[in-house]
Amino acid sequence: MIRTLLTALFAMISFTATGLDHETEARLKMAHQIARERNDAALVNRVKNAADKIESGLDAAETEAHLREIETAVGIDPGGWSMAGQPLYHPSPEREAGTKSIGPKLKTALAEESVPGVKAAVAEWLVVLGDQAGLPDGRRPDAKPGPLSLDEAAATRLFLDALASEGRAVRELTEGRALPGQMLRFYAYVLEGLATIRPSVERHAADSLDEVDALATGVAGILTKLQQPDGHFPFPDLRGRNLRFGDMIEKQLAAGAIEIRDGWVITADPDGGTQFDTGVCGVALLKAGKIWSNPAWTAAGLRAADWALGQKCVANFNYNAFSVSLLCQAHAASGKADYLDAALAKFRLGVAPGQAPNGRWIDPHNARTVYHIIILRAIGDLLETLPADRASDLVEVKTVAEPAVAALLDEFDAMGITVECLPELSPLVPQVSDSDRLRQALDRVAASLVEKCTDGSRVKLGAQPHQLAAVAERLRK
Questions:
Q1: Which of 419, 310, 437 lies closest to 375, judged by CA?
Q2: What is the predicted pLDDT for the residue at 242?
Q3: Is the predicted pLDDT of residue 266 greater than 70, yes or no?
């Protein structure tokens, strides 16, 4: 179901462990976090039950037995700090205190737009984290798909059939009616998927063009209607529907920091999170504006880019990366040099300095594979957009790209495919030295997306639409 797919992020269950030593509490939190991200309520409860037993007062051997049991159940290697042999971030009181002390220095340097200041803060952070720098605080279950056996026509039909399996939701979107409680990024994924698939539909399923065009019009209408006058995109009011975001909104509202109107938080997030939805929505509108030759959609995408131009970089590196991607797309759509110059400046200040020696980003949040992919997309967008005569800029970006791609491919080789990433990584294939290895990995990614959407007989929308559409694009001759 499209509603299930789009709301999986909202399945948040709170977890608190008290009265335990730091190591035991950290292992329980890691197990709970991974169970929650698998959206498995029974597994989450199993972790919570184990925590209750441990908190009731067990000896060391019994405690360790319970910890190892739940770690095995969620896919963590016994001992708590790796999955399939791939290390997980191991917190400690010293690392947490050191990270907290560096935070204000990093924020000040970003606010002052001081690249040397950001690099100095990150260098200090690297010392604090030591061998834990660049390790994620969670990993995802793997997929080891069979070979990709579709051609472009079959992949196109799979996309159309997957959409058709969501008949009621698709009808609502075609009519321009938003689904309740959804973040706007999900409409962007639908619109980007439609823009990506349309050339293949025109070639292989022309009888479906009217339906694709009507759905794109409906989804783009939702986005343009909700875009704010300054160009950014709002966040749904999730109070009473989501523990994490609902609590956050309650606190911001009580502090007078946000305004809510007609079910939407229309105030941009002061911590930079609005760059996420504005980035993906703006990119989708610009791509759709090009495919459908629709100047209104292009103008909306450029308004989003103009908003991004004015945003300060923040301490969450992947937030800045969303604006880098949007500004690159705006340059491609308009030809204006200001957009590309701003994208490169944001990359230099708010993205590149955060890379750790292992190729990932320094903090355990941005080191997660899903956020690593967001940063890689921005890198690929820059490499695609920079002209050949800016050789030194290209070398600068490629110097960051090479270890970042290698780090991801190492995870894929060790664990299987752990994240959807086909449209994000495809632009990097001709840009990196290990292009053959990346190309082979993307074939596996494409195969895993197909397997999520069909078992050979039944079809469902088991992957994000822009990811599934990218399979047909990859197979396009």
A1: 419
A2: 73
A3: yes
Residue 469 lies inside a defined structural domain of this protein = yes
Mean pLDDT value across residues 20-40: 87
Whichever domain contains 340, its CATH number is 1.50.10.10
Burial of 326 (0-12, 13-18, 19+ CB in 10 A): buried
| pTM (two decimals) | 0.93
Domain of residue 423: give its range: 152-232+268-475
Amino acid at 23: E
Does residue 370 belong to any structural domain of this protein? yes
On whether the CB atoms of residues 297 and 287 are closer than 8 A, the answer is no
Q: Write down the pLDDT at residue 8.
A: 34
Asked whether the beta carbons of 430 and 388 are under 8 A apart, the reply is no
pLDDT surpassing 70 at residue 16: no
- Please list the residues that pair with 143 across neighbouring strands: 417
Determine the Cα–Cα distance for residues 152 and 472; give it in Å rounded to an integer: 5
Mean pLDDT confidence for 305-333: 98
**CA-based nearest residue to 115, from 341, 340, 328, 347:** 347
Q: Do 424 and 327 fall into the same domain?
A: yes
Distance, in Å, from the CA atom of 460 to the CA atom of 463, rounded to the nearest integer, reads: 9
What's the distance, Cα to Cα, between the start and end of the chain in Å? Answer: 31
3-state helix, strand, coil in the chain (%, to 5): 65, 5, 30
CA distance 477 to 472: 10
Q: How confident is residue 165, by pLDDT bands cut at 50, 70 and 90?
A: very high
Domain membership flag for residue 418: yes
Residue type, position 229, single letter: P
Please give the mean pLDDT across all residues of the chain.
93
- The answer to whether the CB of 265 falls within 8 A of the CB of 249 is yes
Q: Is residue 241 part of a domain?
A: no
The secondary element (H helix, E strand) that includes residue 264 is strand 264-265
Q: What is the pLDDT of residue 67?
A: 94
